Amino acid sequence: METAAIHKIGEKCLVCEMNKENGIHLWNQFLCTECEREIINTDPEDEQYQYYLEKLKSISLPTKNVKAKM
Ligand SMILES: [Zn+2]
């Protein structure tokens, strides 16, 4: 099919907002492997961590499940 040429690769990551092939699904959202790693490696006291938390809040997921992944 000719439309295959414009078929987007991967899915849009909710944090970096770029299309990535590798990542995980959090409820109905997609988080790429790079961002997942960034979040895990970010110190909870770091400002960047709060930024990630804000992004993750957009996911309609029970909070305790999100924390369990951290
Ligand atoms: Zn990402």
State Rg.
14 Å
Number of alpha- plus pi-helical segments: 3
Low-confidence stretches: none
Within the largest sheet, what's the order of strands? 1-2
Main sheet characteristics: 2 strands, antiparallel
Protein name: Sigma factor G inhibitor Gin
InterPro entries: Sigma-G_inhibitor_Gin
Pfam family, one: Gin
Task: Characterise the protein shown here.
The chain has 70 residues and is α+β, with helices and mostly antiparallel strands. The protein has one domain (2-61). It contains three helices and four strands. The chain has helices at residues 33-41, 47-57, 63-69, and strands at 11-12, 19-20, 23-26, 29-32. The strands form two sheets. It has a two-stranded antiparallel sheet. Strands 3-4 form a two-stranded antiparallel ribbon. A hairpin with a 2-residue loop joins strand 3 (23-26) and strand 4 (29-32).
List the helices and strands and how they pair.
Layout: E1 11-12, E2 19-20, E3 23-26, E4 29-32, H1 33-41, H2 47-57, H3 63-69
Antiparallel strand pairs: 1-2, 3-4
